[in-house]
Amino acid sequence: MQTIRVVCAHDCPDMCSMLAHVEGGRVVRIQGDPANPLTAGFACAKVNRDHELVHSTQRLATPLRRVGPKGEGKFQPFGWDEALDQIVARWKAIIAKDGPLALLGYAYSAHQGQLNRGLVNGLFHALGTSRLQAGTVCDTCCETAWDFTVGPVGGADPESVAQSDLIVSWGADLMATNVHLWAKVEDARKKGVAVIVVDPRRSRTAQRADWHIPIRIGTDAALALGLMHILVRDGLCDAHYIANNTVGFDRLKAEVLPRFAPARVAEITGLAVSDVERFAALYGQAKSSFIRLGEGMTRLAGGGQALRAVALLPGVTGAYGRPGGGALLLTAASCELNYNAIRKPSGPDATRLVNHLRLGEALLEMRDPPIRGLFIASNNPAVTNPDAGKLRRALAREDLFTVVHDPFLSVTARYADIVLPAATYLETEDFYRSYGSYYMQWGHRAVAPFAQSRSNLEVAQALAARMGLKDPIFAMSPEAMLRELFVDATGTVEGTDPDRLREAGPIRIAPKGGQHFRTASGKLEFHSAAMAKLGLPPMPDWHPDPQEEADARRWPLRLLTAPGYFQSHTAYSAVTFLRTREGEPCCILHPDEADARGLTDGQRVRLFNDLGTVGLVLRVSDEVRPGVVLVPGQRPDEEAVSGTINMLCSDRFTDVGEGATYQSTFLDVAAWRA
Ligand code: SF4
Question: Does the beta carbon of 7 sit less than 6 angstroms from any atom of ligand 1?
Fold first, then answer.
């Protein structure tokens, strides 16, 4: 039995260091690596089963070419050389006729390795094609709002919760999406540190916390501003910290906070006045309060305001300046590597941008030139994009030449002309830096790629060679690419010897001292001049959203989506054990809402609005308020009664960052009828 150091490449903030136990060329067990203090020797319940993922009977063995209608999933195997030659011939013909903008290609988050993901994007950058404004389906709203507030820099170290005196998980279900932080939180809790969860749903994390605050969806900014109102009223602000480290607090205090008295905040948020007061008192009395900022609160129309308001709270009490205090959204911005060497080896500085969440619209409506060639790696947008129905109509275009590189025949791959079998992270080597903790590490290959599958990196290099690209990066070994990543690296990774990385295991790269700010002012910005310049509200505020109000008058329920505990991504759908543990794709309604519709637990139901209808199984539970329908996980169609939940979500943008607004979806639920 061999034990090989690997890194979990799933889209998850923990980015665990792991040990793969290999026997006879097969991964037989995965465990967390004790050498990484955050991973602390355990992998999550999903990835514990990744030996089943890598050796799944559903893996694609060879390249495939389509022989049936798009979407039907009928393919014939053919060889790699023929596949690559056909792709390149089609791309060259498209470029000759319409120019490189008629192509769009990208790799997204299902493989978090910097080399594999980066080089696919580097290929299309070098070709000068249209470019994906990636991540708007996920985190561009919260990231942009954080940058306006704190700057492009990592937040509090998750391991610092050992020094916290109050921990708040705000808009995150840590037991589903950040289990290694949750383990540290539980350690702190055992020592008497109070844990508060702000979440519209009584999640597993909320059940385990000391206090669950079941906020109404979309009102987080109002609650945060209400807390600030009370902190000011009760003299619980750190005036010295505010004066030295922030800008604009006096304006916020004078122009915004008076409108957020506890009674109004209670009315907006659906909470009791006494709970708003109690929360403010606990937060104000704590010295080293730690807030885990969840992305969930930002996936709606006013998401940017919500993130800004909550991220400013530690500036009011001075927690940002103390060990164990502050707020954590992401950490990756503090790992300043030479990413451009891989992602932008050559090609024009700017070309045409395609917003990730409006991929469907771009494919249907872009002209001069229309997009005629599409390449997708490590992403399943036909399930995960909002308005997934529109995207599928676009993918069905007969004149769109689509290539998908994936380990499995995903819903998106069913629409492809050519599907290429992808190696999983356990079959590829790569360099990883976490986006939710402060570690970087080389991940070794545990086993040879299954059948004819190839890594994203190999495919990018093979296509680059056939397209005649001469950039040296397209001929480099992974080791040489790693060296390029560290040329002129700055911040906490400055001076790292990349040649030591392969055998070094996890390397801690946490910044020292309190929270750094990298805004234009160099301070925490309660008032953002940069936002004002862009015509955005410069101070956090809360107003009802007119579109949401109009939709709420037509549709009685508001959608809440959340990662499933065993099916947080569609990538896990190939693991039967995890699918079984997660259960049938379902929606959850409060008993009052189920009764009002004559619906019972376990019944098949349809969820519908103007965008379409999907079919799920009903669970009746008071874990959500009346007026809400919760859908956990983004489950592929073949598992559900019908369709996938994102078919009901529009492609509207958030207030900042042009992000997705899944939680601004209104709908109704009724008994299923085919
Ligand atoms: S917790 Fe996240 S990083 Fe760790 S093994 Fe699970 S999915 Fe991977």
Answer: no
The best mutation among 31, 36, 46, 54 to test binding of ligand 1, ranked by most ligand atoms within 8 Å of the C-beta, falls on 46
Determine, yes or no, domain membership for 53.
no
Structure tokens at 224: 């945060």
pTM of model > 0.70 = yes
**How confident is the model over 348-391, as pLDDT tens digits?**
999 999 999 999 999 999 999 999 999 999 999 999 999 999 99
> Does residue 12 line the site of ligand 1, with CB under 6 A?
yes
Best mutation site among 38, 47, 50, 432 for ligand 1, i.e. most ligand atoms within 8 A of its Cβ?
A: 47
- Looking at ligand 1, which residue's alpha carbon is closest to its atom 3? 15
Q: Are 194 and 213 in contact (CB under 8 A)?
A: no
The CA-to-CA distance between both ends of the chain, in Å, stands at 52
Q: Do 269 and 215 meet the contact criterion of CB atoms below 8 Å apart?
A: yes
**CATH number of 198's domain:** 3.40.228.10
**Domain shared by 617 and 599, yes or no:** yes
Whether 220 and 318 share a structural domain = yes
Average pLDDT, the chain: 96
Atom of ligand 1 nearest to the CA of 12: 2
Angle at 432 between CA 429 and CA 435, to 5 degrees: 155
Q: Is residue 476 part of a domain?
A: yes
Q: Indicate the helix (H) or strand (E) that contains 353.
A: strand 353-355
Residue 38 domain-assigned?
no
- CB of 14 shorter than 6 A to ligand 1: yes
Query: Of ligand 1's atoms, which has the minimum distance to the CA of residue 9?
Result: 8
What domain range is 521 assigned to?
156-328+514-533
* Domain of residue 609, CATH code: 2.40.40.20
Amino acid identity of residue 660, one-letter, is A
Asked if residue 319 and residue 179 are part of one domain, the reply reads: yes
The alpha carbons of the chain give a radius of gyration, in whole angstroms, of 24
